[in-house]
Amino acid sequence: xxxxxxxxxxxxxxxxxxxxxxxxxxxxxxxxxxxxxxxxxxxxxxxxxxxxxxxxxxxxxxxxxxxxxxxxxxxxxxxxxxxxxxxxxxxxxxxxxxxxxxxxxxxxxxxxxxxxxxxxxxxxxxxxxxxxxxxxxxxxxxxxxxxxxxxxxxxxxxxxxxxxxxxxxxxxxxxxxxxxxxxxxxxxxxxxxxxxxxxxxxxxxxxxxxxxxxxxxxxxxxxxxxxxxxxxxxxxxxxxxxxxxxxxxxxxxxxxxxxxxxxxxxxxxxxxxxxxxxxxxxxxxxxxxxxxxxxxxxxxxxxxxxxxxxxxxxxxxxxxxxxxxxxxxxxxx
Length: 333
Ligand SMILES: [Zn+2]
Known about the structure:
- The chain has one domain (5-320): Ribonuclease Z/Hydroxyacylglutathione hydrolase-like (Metallo-beta-lactamase, Chain A), CATH 3.60.15.
- The chain is an alpha/beta fold.
- Helix 9 (249-262) packs antiparallel against helix 10.
- It is 23% helix and 23% strand.
- The chain has an eight-stranded mixed beta sheet with strand order 1-2-3-4-5-6-7-8, with no helix packed on it. Strands 9-10-11-12-14 form a five-stranded mixed beta sheet, with no helix packed on it.
- The chain has helices spanning 5-18, 20-24, 30-33, 40-43, 107-112, 128-131, 146-151, 157-161, 249-262, 281-294, and strands at residues 54-56, 64-69, 72-76, 85-90, 95-98, 119-122, 140-143, 190-192, 197-199, 204-209, 218-222, 227-231, 240-242, 268-271, 302-304, 307-312, 315-320.
- The model is unreliable at 4-35 and 328-333 (pLDDT under 50).
- The radius of gyration is 20 Å and the shape is globular.
- The structure holds zinc ion.
- Zinc ion binds at residues 1-2, 125, 127, 213, 232.
């Protein structure tokens, strides 16, 4: 995901608080006191879907770990607004870590409790909330895009925005220094591409390029076990973000179509935020929902300047406003 809207709201709130004395008489002072209350997204947790999942390592505090399929773990960060989910996929020779989360908790320490196999990192895409722990690992696969190479240099701004008051719910890990929080740089060991297969030992996962959300967005399929990891191209439960400058909407539509065609051959869809499991039938529904937005059948639920949110059935899309033209690619990448 990666938040801009919350950041904007927080900036407004900070401004209001700075002007507290001046605005108190106008009745805005509650905006400041609300910071100490639980934000709405946090009040809604835990999400009921987690009740049916098998939790492991229950003593972990920043991460919640769930065994979602044999030798397959969802590593969830419920205390931060992104509710990022990374996945550890374990074979007999090595394990693949699909995303490394926000980099707030020590994901490497959690993995050490789940597997003793060597670990290779592959990111669903390189937004900050998926690559925060990359620096901890020596072996990282990367898509061969300019976007990926730029993000591998690290950054501070998006990371710091993740810590805005409304974005954190509960205690940050012991010893975490919020003033120093940044996405640390990492080194790409090997450039990979659509169709690239990783043999984990009696288990193979394959990259399916699904650009759109970002130029380097991928999905990962474990054909033998019927698992499809969809990154930010699809996750159940939250708004799907398609408004940022790096998003190519026509490419996103094509990628959703690609994923929908895979549905008959998989058992489980595993997205990178909010809720780790969904049924394969959701992919055709996703395609139908986004198409209904394209066809102008859905009016925006809300419009805020150059962003608009469309609700199509169970799906919510944060889009650019107005919607991008579809007869040519944005060509921004
Ligand atoms: Zn993202």
